[in-house]
Amino acid sequence: MFATGSGRLYGGDSGSSFAGGFNSADGVIAVELTMSRHNHDPKYVPMFDVDPVDLRFTGVPRGEEIHFEGESAALPGVRFNTILTRINDSDAPPPGEVGADGISNGLYSIHIRMLDGIDAGNTGVMMLQDGSIRGGDAFFDYIGAYSSANGRWKGEIVNREHTPSRGERPVFGGHEVGIGFSGTYDGDGAEGEATALVGKRSIRFKAVLRKLVEVAD
């Protein structure tokens, strides 16, 4: 989840994206989000049958975490808990240079397919903002930077496991992975080829990004 100084929230996981806002008063944080599915693979089982679905949460900080309880008018009688833990991005690379016609700030879905005969892939979301990358999925978070101009972009990402994948993502699971990429973009999204260094192994993959929400702030 990516929080802006103006009170907007953008985020997601391997199957859905989240966009909405928050405010804080008397130590209580109130959140309203719309959850929309971006992964339409028939093998993927979504959390809810309703799509999109509006969600409401209230939460309080507890140490390094924020604990929320939520509900939705579209799901009567269903309540759920959510815990947010801040991601350490102190070692993220500095933002890259973005030209006047560079790739637009926004929340993007990312769909990855391995190359060179490796039968594996992944999906998640990625926030692009002024040359910086923040993103993640059900098991990994991504921090990085990019430069873009004249329909071309390139950058670097560090992929880190925040929740044990237990073999569900056998290529990156258990590793902190450095990734370099380059490719093209337009008004709807971007694509590129990347090389990931997994231990001593070099793995190539193709990534396709689709813009879900444009971000102005």
Secondary structure: elements and pairs:
Blueprint: E1 2-3, E2 8-12, E3 16-25, E4 28-37, E5 53-62, E6 65-71, E7 79-85, E8 106-114, E9 121-129, E10 132-136, E11 140-149, E12 152-161, E13 177-185, E14 189-198, E15 201-214
Antiparallel strand pairs: 1-2, 2-3, 3-4, 4-5, 5-6, 6-7, 8-9, 8-15, 9-10, 10-11, 11-12, 12-13, 13-14, 14-15
Describe the structure.
The chain folds into two domains: 2-85; 106-214, Lipocalin (Beta Barrel), CATH 2.40.128.380. A hairpin with a 3-residue loop joins strand 13 (177-185) and strand 14. With 217 residues, the protein is mainly beta. The radius of gyration is 17 Å and the shape is globular. The chain contains no helices and 15 strands. The protein has an eight-stranded antiparallel beta barrel. A seven-stranded antiparallel sheet has the order 1-2-3-4-5-6-7, with no helix packed on it.
